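User: Predict the full complex structure for these chains.
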Amino acid sequence: MGASLFHRVWTYPRARRLLGIAVGSYLVALLAGFIAPYDPRAQDRSAVKAPPHRLRFRDAEGRLHRRPFFHPWRIVDRARHQYEEDRSRYYEVAFFVRGEEAPLFLGLKTSYHLFGVLSRSSTHREPSGVAGEESPPRVYLLGTDHLGRDVFSRLVHGSRPALLIASLSLVGAFLIGFVLGGVAGYYGGTFDAVLMRMGELVESVPLLFLLLVWRAVLPLDLSVEASLFTLIALFVLVSWTSIARVTRGCVLSLKAQEFVLGALALGASPGWILRHHLFPNALTPALIQATLTLPSFLLGEAALSFLGLGIPEPEPSWGSMLAVARDLSVLRAQPWLLVPGLALWGFVALFTLLGEAIRAAWDPHHPASAPAF
Amino acid sequence: MRVFWLRRGVQAIGLLMALSFVTFLSLALAPGDPFATLEERPFLSPETRQAWRRQWGLDQPLLVRYGRWLAHVAQGQLGYSLEYQMPVSELIGARLGATLLLTIAANGIAWGIGFPLGVFAALHAYSWFDRAHTVFATVALTTPRFFLALVALIFAMTTGWFPLGGIRSIGIEGAAPLERFLDVLHHLVLPAVVLSAHPLAVISTHTRGHLLDALHTPGVRAARAKGLPRVTLLWRHALRPALAPVIVLVGYSFGSLLSGSALVETILAWPGLGQLIVESVFARDPDVLMATVLIGGACVIVGHTLADALLMMNDPRSRIEA
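Assistant: Here is the predicted structure of the two-chain assembly.
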């Protein structure tokens, strides 16, 4: 059944395209150490609240450069964090540049990055550069935050907690909801009643209220690992219900069908029927329901981090990055700090559309599947 | 009909009691009680601390504490806020009003625009309007609320058309009632619009999808063949069956709006329940948390009951079952 769902998704162009982009986003998260040019926690005290560097190809004299280059920022007003371009110097940006060593995944390390600043410093008059100069300035594609941290690097690294939490919550909620819902649907009785009432209990509270109250149970300052685990546990706790209900519904309708009765007549045990007939047949609808809940995990993580209850600083998370932009003066002076919101938007849109496309690939007659495109 | 309401009432009370018990249990089992931070202060003698704990009843077993809390709630007392040093009912009273105002306004926008939008898109399916509607709905569905709230803040800041958060202007207290009302309305626009974006898109896409399905049923085709006017066809034969799954969204929109209000209120400084719950998570104010969860639950139950009542009005068959 699972293979069949994959086949349908693969032969449904929209779902396949979106699946490709989703795999790409996981790759970005996996290779964050390579794609981000700098350590997301590293602070550059000489560039606090610096705006994004302007990448140029044409210099003041109208000459075209082979590589994009930028003029480093010169501080005009240290108190107000005002910068201007230092036109006397320029640095070139190139792909696959050797930089600081960064952890990749599974203990692997990389000292090459997707892009970086070439160490050859040049002035307009002396293109060969001054020998023995200190390392080149850092390039900030999306500016820096209030501690002088590279927003682009934090943005790339911020995809990791988002995807990790969303994926693991999805797996946890799916496993619990699928098994509980299946067993409840097949055996019925007290277990079914208690389980369904528990589900109603969870669903009778506004989601964020529930998350906040349960978050209040634990201490406010948690380590990174503990907060990751807490968030995943919270999301599983509030989201298993919809998957359980879908599975239960499927099992209820399946167990009334002849082939189940036939298996019973042949002497199959309830556990065997559940494992060989009911679970495989209920798998696809439950999987689709689980996929549709993934965006809410992304939003939940960002919302809790935004409120200061999620991933703790200095680890990058899109929610906590946006929290800085809550201040009106920050919003006015450093609008580039809103970029994490765009990234979150993109991810939520991607996984929402992917879930809907997978459902449409499986069930073209679903009312929500009538496309306008 | 009376049986229906009676049964719903009993169900609601049972659900709220279970909800309060689970919340109470999880808050009580949390490591450290509200006095944990006080206990770190060296000038407090152990006797004083013990006396305080006794005064607040924290030395009693769990079930006794829950029983006491329940008895107080039955008398209309929701407890005492340690953070604000005032009764929770007083604290929540004003906040609840602000949140209800916001939620009802957002609900009004969402249904008032979302439903006609969905109907129009379904009637003109696959037209340019329908396409534009789908694009709009997808954008609205996927925009994180707090990002939208930040964008609204920028909008208010650059245009100066709307106030930057809050519920009333400073120094408006002395003004005429009408002026005060208009002032609150002016403050209400941005948070309500931000909050309504998501449910609006949900309502319009669902309305479109279900109405489109209903328009292609054999019954509607037969009615069209019979020569019924388009208006009757739509209102009597297509819309009513299509309405059922849309009405269910009434219950959903209450929960979703309250949930969203926690973030939007925090960002746009709307002094409501959502803002309060966020503050009391940081302050570890158990009575306030209990009360907000209960009120949140009650609002969602009211929403679902309202949806069921509307369903019965819409579909005669469901009246027999109830």
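Chain B touches chain A through 65 residues (CB under 8 Å).
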